[in-house]
From TrEMBL:
Pfam families the record matches: TMP-TENI
Cofactor binding description: Binds 1 Mg(2+) ion per subunit.
Binding-site residues for 4-amino-2-methyl-5-(diphosphooxymethyl)pyrimidine, renumbered to this chain: Q38, L39, R40, D41, K42, N70, S109, K138
GO BP annotation list: thiamine biosynthetic process; thiamine diphosphate biosynthetic process
Record: residues binding 2-[(2R,5Z)-2-carboxy-4-methylthiazol-5(2H)-ylidene]ethyl phosphate: T135, A136, T137, G166, V186, S187
Annotated GO MF terms: magnesium ion binding; thiamine-phosphate diphosphorylase activity
Signal peptide (UniProt feature, chain positions): none
Native species: Pseudochrobactrum asaccharolyticum
Annotated TM spans: none
Pathway: Cofactor biosynthesis; thiamine diphosphate biosynthesis; thiamine phosphate from 4-amino-2-methyl-5-diphosphomethylpyrimidine and 4-methyl-5-(2-phosphoethyl)-thiazole: step 1/1
Protein name: Thiamine-phosphate synthase
Length: 214
């Protein structure tokens, strides 16, 4: 049984992180409570992606945060990442699983209840559901599904799930009330003046919701 915590899932964005950098942003966010870090860098060359992934792996050693690589199977295997996240057009989950082996965490993006229902829990470890709200951090993004859509999609599969897409601090309670295991954030931490403080605020809000729920 793979052990991972989807509570606060940071998706890195090179442009947003700017001069502060993706590695430093990740370190700060993990100090603040981020439990997962995904390297998503669509515009990077293979070599640039490899160098960043290696630096992130080194930076996160000794923490409990898991390093996930977006889409790039070769990079994930090359650095021994904790996991890989794929979209609906990045090859079948079964083919990807065959390449990465049984031990690596595999996440899959879904936007509809139909896609969620098709996800095989033998192959996929968690779902990324969204976009929940409109977002400018991903090109050619699908239409947002809202909180009601998130709840509907989540209810069609028993896999752990993280909500993504335009999620900000005020959304924490509504997102978690749908039953999902956590929330993924990009611009709410990347590019912020104090990413550790932003992550800490999310961490506190998540803990507060769970404490109130009992």
């Amino acid at each position: 049984m793979k052990q991972f915590d989807l509570s606060l899932y940071l998706v890195l964005d090179r442009e947003l992180c700017g001069s502060f950098g993706m590695v430093e942003t990740a370190i700060a966010a993990v100090r603040g409570g981020a439990t997962m870090v995904q390297l998503r860098d669509k515009d990077a060359s293979q070599q640039e992606m490899l160098e960043t992934a290696k630096a992130l792996k080194t930076a996160l050693e000794g923490t409990n945060a898991k390093l996930i690589i977006n889409d790039n199977v070769d990079i994930a295997i090359a650095i021994g990442a904790d996991g890989l996240h794929i979209g609906q057009h990045d090859g079948s989950p079964e083919q990807v699983r065959a390449k990465i082996g049984p031990d690596m965490i595999l996440g899959l993006s879904v936007q509809t209840a139909e896609l969620a229902a098709k996800a095989d829990s033998v192959v996929v470890d968690y779902l990324g559901i969204g976009p929940v709200f409109p977002t400018a951090t991903k090109k050619n993004c699908a239409p947002s599904i809202g909180i009601d859509g998130l709840k509907r999609v989540y209810s069609h599969n028993g896999l752990p799930a993280v909500a993504i897409g335009g999620i900000k601090l005020p959304h924490v309670d509504d997102v978690l009330a749908t039953g999902v295991n956590g929330l993924a954030v990009v611009s709410a931490i990347c590019g912020q003046d104090h990413p550790e403080q932003k992550a800490r605020a999310f961490h506190a809000a998540i803990a507060g919701f769970r404490a109130a729920k009992g």
